[in-house]
Amino acid sequence: MSYDFKKVEKKILRFWEERKIPMKVKEKNTGGKKFFHLDGPPYVTGSPHPGIGMNRCLKDMVRRYKRFQGFDVWDQPGFDMHGLPIENGVEKLHKLKNKEDIVKFGVKRFIDECRRFSTQYLDEMVDVFKRVGEWADWNNPYMSTDPSFLDSVWWAVKESHNKGALYRGHKVLTWCPRCGTALAGNYEVIYKNIKDNSIFVKLPIDNKTFLIVWTTTPWTIPYNMAVMANPKLDYVKVDVGGERWIMAKGLVAAVMATIGKGYRIVEEFKGKKLLGVRYKAPFADEMEYPEGEKNHTVVLSRDYVDLSAGTGLVHCATGCGPEDYEVGKEYGIKPFNDLDDSGVFTTGKLKGMVARKDDRRFAEMLKKKGLVVHEVGVEHEYPHCERCKTPVVFKLTEQWFLEVTKFKDKMLKANKSVYWVPEWAGKNQFKRWLENIKDWCISRQRFWGIPIPVWECESCGKYEIIGGVAELAERAKVPKDLHKPEIDGVTWKCKCGGTMRRSPDVLDVWIDSACTPFASLGYPSSPEPFKTLFPVDFIIESKDQIRGWFYGLMGMSMMVFDECPYKAVEMHGFTCDSKGEGMSKRKGNYVPMKETLEKHGADVFRLFVTASASPGVDVRYDERGMKATYRTVSILWNAAKFIENNMALERYEHRELGELGVEDRWILSRVNRVVKEVTEYMEQYRINDAVKVMEPFIVEDLSRWYLKLKKGLFYSDGNKGDVLSVLDSVLSKLLPITSVFIPFVSEAIFQQMKKYLGSEEESVFLNSWPDADERFIDSKLEKDMDVAREVVASTLRARDMVGVGLRWPLPKVTVVSNKERLKSCKRMEKTVLSQTNVKSLELMDTHPKEAKMEMRARFGSLKERVGSDAPAIVAMLVELGSRSVKNKLDKDGAVGVQVHGKTVTITANDVEFKIKAPKGVVVSEMTGGTVYLCSELDAALVDEGTARELMRRIQEMRKEMGLTRHHKVKCVVETSKEKKLSSFRDEIEERCGCRLSFGKASGDLVRAFKVRKTDFKVGLKRM
User: Fold this and answer.
1) Res. 584 pLDDT band, cuts 50 70 90
2) Cα separation of 753 and 103, whole Å?
3) Following CA atoms 607, 610, 611, 612 in sequence, which dihedral angle do they give, to the nearest 10 degrees?
4) Which residues lie closer than 8 Å to 714 by C-beta, 6 or more apart?
5) Which distant-in-sequence residues (6+ apart) come within 8 Å of 399 by Cβ?
6) Strand pairing of 181-183 and 189-204?
7) If DSSP codes are grouped into helix, strand and coil, which group holds residue 800?
8) Residues contacting residue 245 through CB under 8 Å, at least 6 positions apart
9) Peptide bond into 535 cis (omega under 30)
10) CA-to-CA distance for 282 and 616, rounded, in angstroms?
């Protein structure tokens, strides 16, 4: 029966649910050692895509393995339900364009819609996760909207304040004018290539002398407060039509070529000479600037001025850029930016103009002032809001910050104790990220989020941080819903007599996820789970979480607990399309998980995404790969069905291992090695490596080799008990391992075969993890078998070259290789001969003299490696001779050639050979050797081949009659070859389950055919 994943997976899902298998596994391990897996919460904003599906599968695999190891696994799922992703979804749904529209819509109504939106896909998402085979505590998920979760987050904010890490301050931040909120530049903005008109602007020192600056953001020129020069660079003053322009010497030629004007250098000096030079602000008549002695002067900066672009003089708007802000702070220049939340100018004659949107108008105003010397289009990267994709502006704003920078050294030290998979993710990427962190802006000017727990007196300005619901209840009546707008109505009297009102902001949604190690457990209100479980044993998320969740967890935990939050972290890549592009609905290359599961099934998806890429590397999702993986799962299914059928026919009962042949000892060695290696890899969270060990064992070792080796026995009347006991042992060890990665097909096979495997467990997952029995692991035997398989494969290729089918015996195969490989081949002689249907095996460490050999150097690649020595090396190889070089390569794998007093190593990659064998012999190359196959058949071999071809035809007829192996038939063969075939009577009867006679063919089914021009007619009759 072919593998029908829809039928199998549906049946197994029902079995798990009806028998409550996940709960029984959990109960079995209750009281065992705790294993705290913390689920990185996905957003519940739509149908899951393959990237989320892969993440869920990897998590499930680790947890299944740990359950097998007896761990009491914490498998609580979680969901992210606050923030702009939810708000933007509601805005699109109700066609709300900005915050003003939200207020008109009604904040309470908007919050209710956000709550509904945040849960509308929850059931669908959970259904998909269950369908993919993930076992988790679906009845007890943590949700960031739960009151207990909010309570924990408030506690953490107050704890941060108590540790001196919370402060309120003014900084220049990225700001989304559409969403009307500050954004974190490290994880809430994305950079896109856009085209803008850039302008070269003259800043007047006097009527004839100008500083030349360049900008791609004309809207920031009204906020210009200084010009930055590099003190170490050379600057020039050039004459341009009677005006004197100042810029960097290293850029003057490029700038003037772009502008298209002639020039003459009249003065040269170092940048430090420009310090303090005053110029007139280009919008001095339109703007009211803050007072300051150093306003609109040249300041110095080595960090932010270079010769990579522009003029070497950098326009500095201290209220419009983080770097500009830092330089202004150094020189005592106040930051200036009067944009409102929508990016609109609010003071002076520019009131009502819009940042970025009115760039053209700003440029035109500067042109009218005679201050634009050139305008040119430029393509450059510009930050956009990650959620609504609006280009951001930079805005001076007062926000609440966590001073994570004061914990940087502790975080760097803690990171050294974390086990990272891959290692470079923590050692390089995360380390670099921590080295460059800035203080964390945690306040957002939005609606749907955990309200920031800060109440401030309207009269005296005193503020309080509230550390939880109980603390709030001591001051005022607590509303049922702690979100906006209800929470904003909670007030109380300050000691001064004024009213304490909550700051209207909400917390950055990443604070929610940063608090999950304790908020998901209800800490501190319910302390026991946290005390038992923390720190987290294992987390796994995608590579973008270096700057997101991995960092958030570390920062919050170090501030609150002074302890690293996790012991082990695995970072996986993204799921991309077949071209390597990220999947998205916009590109049309997005495949919903529901569609994938319907088309390919859960096991195929699980196996494909796990085996397709190493940790940290993107997975390319493609149909061909999925279909190839389906074949792997089918091979396991079909192999198990074949074994099951034979066990049923033999009425096999579980027993200890019997007499073992060399092939039996080999498969037992292989399965125990697989157990050992998979266990080691899973202990190291190298999930993909574990799969890459398991998968070839199923496909190559078990199905395509061992079962093939034993195929003749299964179709004979011989004793199969010993082989079946070997397969019993193999499957008993294999199925628990495969069940971690492909649980559906593994459970289905176990249910069909457990009576033969001697297991009384209700499910494969209630078994123990198998032990690797070191007594059976035989490295020498495995190496011998590897050589045998190569020889067999090479010999079968030689058969294909001359078109001689495997049923036709051939007289001799000669193997040429090194002595070690020849010894292996000798030890496996019986296996080699049986699998190639050759009568004799000859072993040689030099090529036969009858074989003629031509050698040709791969001159191009050789020259690339050894350079000018290549001609001399080729000459030396020719002098050594083709046969000598070939023999040496087969024997040692390399040839040492002396050239110009040094030894150069030549390998098989440097030369190629053309071997012309004697007549009747065909040559086939293999790794480290060559096979010479004698392809001529004498009369006796023809008779034997004819008998085997006859057996194949009889088997086909049995199949056509719908017979199984235990059905016996009478077989009458009508042929002129009766006398020659009589000697094969016993073999034919045993292999074909028949009583053979010769004469006129008759019976229930009669078929005629030719074998090598000889006519045959065969009749079969049921007995």
Assistant:
1) low
2) 64
3) 110
4) 642, 646, 720, 723
5) 168, 169, 171, 173, 182, 441, 442, 443, 505
6) unpaired
7) helix
8) 202, 210, 212, 237, 238, 263, 373
9) yes
10) 50
**Tokens, residue 471:** 């603390």
* Whether the Cβ atoms of residue 57 and residue 610 lie closer than 8 Å to each other: yes
Nearest-angstrom CA–CA distance, 72 and 29: 5
Q: Across residues 428-449, what is the average pLDDT?
A: 95
For residue range 304-314, list pLDDT tens digits in order.
999 988 999 99
Measured CA to CA, the distance from residue 558 to residue 948 in angstroms comes to: 75
CA–CA distance, 455 with 202 (Å, rounded to integer): 48
**pLDDT, tens digit, 9 for 90 and up, residues 76-89:** 999 999 999 999 99
Q: Which residues pair with 35 in a beta bridge?
A: 73
The CB-based long-range contact list for 730-733 (8 Å cut-off, 24+ gap) reads 730/667, 730/668, 730/671, 730/702, 731/640, 731/643, 731/757, 732/757, 732/758, 732/759, 732/770, 733/671, 733/672, 733/674, 733/675, 733/770
d(CA 160, CA 804): 79
SS3 string, 299-319, reads: EECCCCCCCCCCCCEEEECCC
Per-residue confidence band for 135, with pLDDT thresholds at 50, 70 and 90: very high
- Residues 715, 718: Cα–Cα separation, whole Å: 9
588 confidence band (pLDDT: 50, 70, 90): low
Name beta bridge partners: 843.
Answer: 815
Give dist(CA 17, CA 1019) in Å, integer: 52
The predicted-structure confidence for 160-202, as pLDDT tens digits, reads as follows 999 999 999 999 999 999 999 998 877 788 888 888 889 999 9
Residue labelled with tokens 């300050």: 494
Nearest to 73 by CA among 137, 3, 12: 137
Q: Do you know the residue count of the chain?
A: 1023
What residues pair up with 379 in beta bridges, in sequence order?
195
117: pLDDT strictly greater than 70? yes
Going by pLDDT thresholds of 50, 70 and 90, the confidence category of residue 877 is confident
DSSP 8-state code for residue 325: H
Q: Which residue has the tokens 């003065």?
A: 267
Side chain identity at residue 630, one-letter code: Y
Prior bond of 422 cis (ω within 30°): yes
Instruction: Locate 960 and state its tokens.
Output: 């056509």
The pLDDT of residue 723 is above 80: yes
716 pLDDT higher than 80: no
Backbone φ and ψ for 750, nearest 5 degrees, come out as -60, -45
Strands (E), 521-662: 539-542, 568-572, 575-576, 619-620
User: CB under 8 Å to 159, separation ≥6 — which residues?
Assistant: 467, 559, 560
Mean pLDDT of 385-392: 90
Answer for the pair 615, 546: CB distance below 8 angstroms, yes or no. no
Does the structure show a pLDDT above 60 at 585? no
* DSSP secondary structure letters along 709-753: HTHHHHTSSS--HHHHHHHHHHHHHHHHHHHHHSHHHHHHHHHHH
- Cα 808 to Cα 820: distance, rounded to the nearest angstrom: 30
Residue type, 779: S
Distance CA 558, CA 408 (A): 9
Between strands 492-493 and 499-502, the pairing is antiparallel
The token pair that represents 625 in the structure block: 């790969």
Neighbours of 389 (CB within 10 A): 12
CB environment 667-687: b (16+ within 10 A), e (fewer): bbbbbbbbbbbbbebbeebbb
- pLDDT at 927 (0 to 100): 84
Instruction: Judge whether 225 and 289 are in contact, CB under 8 Å.
Output: yes
What pLDDT, on the 0 to 100 scale, is given for residue 875? 81
Q: Find the farthest-apart pair of alpha carbons in the chain and give their distance in angstroms, rounded.
A: 122
CA pair distance 467, 475, nearest whole angstrom: 12
